[in-house]
């Protein structure tokens, strides 16, 4: 069984998909997805294209839907929510379907949506992702960072390292990025918030007054929930 880390969708092999794809966008899409499902959302349906989100969500009963849109870190006009995990409380999301489009996270999800198993992970639900993989033992696993517009993101790679470290006793290293991600996690695991505050996307979010989001996203293993793809682009809770 082999484990690979790819820092961005662009760096992953083009014409193939793994047995299991773990999409990571710690700041903030995959943290938001885990938090929404943990707070009782019925499902999260992800779109890279905002127009498509608007069309598909319009066909869903209005009392059972929420539209969440983010571009450049800010909430998209016409949406109910932006991409802050802190907005995903039971009073807001319970029993609703969250239709979400974000700059990078939902695009990464689209890249690997044909994989046999697709899940999303962040630091907040890292243990749930590890537990599932160790139990199901898929032959090839990709930990896929979302990055920022094709570039590298520290926070996604540190989360990939946190997951990889826990899988390595059972999995072989598939590429050098696995070792680099684990080294990054080892270096920063006790000070993740400080790492996020220095990262380029962390800086961007601080400029948008999202300091509380950074602190929330930097927590490890606080949610026992795993978003798993049931239909293309649709994530449902696995506990
Ligand atoms: O890029 C993304 O998908 C988002 O998570 C970015 S943000 O944190 O909402 O700005």
How would you explain this protein's 3D organization?
The protein starts with a strand and ends with a strand. It has a single domain, classed as putative 2-phosphosulfolactate phosphatase. It has a six-stranded mixed β-sheet with strand order 5-4-6-3-11-10. Strands 7-2-8-1-9 form a five-stranded parallel β-sheet, sandwiched between helices. It is an alpha/beta fold and 239 residues long. The chain has helices at 29-38, 50-58, 90-93, 105-111, 126-136, 154-167, 176-188, 192-198, 200-207, 211-217; strands at 2-6, 20-24, 43-46, 65-71, 74-75, 97-101, 117-121, 140-145, 172-173, 226-231, 234-238. Helix 5 (126-136) crosses helix 6 (154-167) and helix 6 (154-167) crosses helix 7. Strand 4 and strand 5 (74-75) form a beta hairpin.
Defining key terms:
239 residues; alpha/beta; putative 2-phosphosulfolactate phosphatase; 6-stranded mixed beta sheet; 5-stranded parallel beta sheet; 10 helices; 38% helix; globular; binds (2R)-3-sulfolactic acid
Structure summarized in a few sentences:
The protein is an alpha/beta fold.
What binds here, in terms of ligands, is: (2R)-3-sulfolactic acid
Largest sheet strand order: 5-4-6-3-11-10
Choose one word for the global shape. Answer: globular
Q: In angstroms, what is the radius of gyration?
A: 16 Å
Helix count equals 10
CATH topology: putative 2-phosphosulfolactate phosphatase
Would you count the extended β strands for me?
A: 11
What is the mean predicted local confidence, pLDDT? 97
Give the count of structural domains.
1
Uncertain spans: none
Write the CATH architecture name. Alpha-Beta Complex
Looking at this structure, what is the CATH superfamily? ComB-like
Q: What percentage of amino acids are in beta strands?
A: 15-25%
Taken in chain order, the helices and strands follow as EEHEHEEHEHEHEHEHHHHEE
End-to-end CA span: 24 Å
Major pleated sheet: 6 strands, mixed
CATH class descriptor name: Alpha Beta
């Amino acid at each position: 069984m082999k484990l690979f880390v790819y820092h961005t969708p662009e760096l992953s092999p083009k014409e193939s998909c793994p047995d299991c794809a773990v999409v990571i966008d710690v700041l903030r899409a995959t943290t938001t997805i885990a938090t929404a499902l943990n707070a009782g959302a019925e499902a999260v349906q992800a779109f890279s294209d905002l127009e498509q989100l608007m069309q598909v969500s319009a066909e869903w009963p209005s009392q059972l839907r929420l539209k969440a849109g983010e571009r450049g870190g800010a909430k998209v006009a016409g949406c109910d929510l932006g991409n802050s995990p802190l907005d995903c409380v039971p009073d807001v999301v319970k029993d609703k379907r969250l239709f979400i489009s974000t700059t990078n996270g939902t695009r990464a999800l689209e890249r690997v949506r044909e994989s046999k198993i697709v899940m999303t992970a962040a630091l907040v639900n890292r243990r749930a992702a590890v537990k599932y993989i160790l139990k199901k033992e898929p032959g090839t696993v990709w930990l896929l960072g979302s990055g920022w517009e094709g570039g590298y993101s520290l926070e996604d790679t540190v989360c990939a390292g946190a997951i990889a470290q826990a899988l390595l006793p059972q999995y072989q290293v598939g590429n050098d990025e696995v070792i680099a991600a684990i080294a990054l996690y080892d270096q920063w695991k006790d000070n993740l918030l400080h790492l996020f505050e220095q990262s380029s996307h962390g800086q961007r979010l601080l400029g948008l007054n999202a300091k509380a989001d950074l602190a929330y996203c930097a927590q490890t293993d606080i949610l026992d929930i795993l978003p798993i793809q049931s239909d293309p682009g649709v994530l449902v809770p696995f506990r």
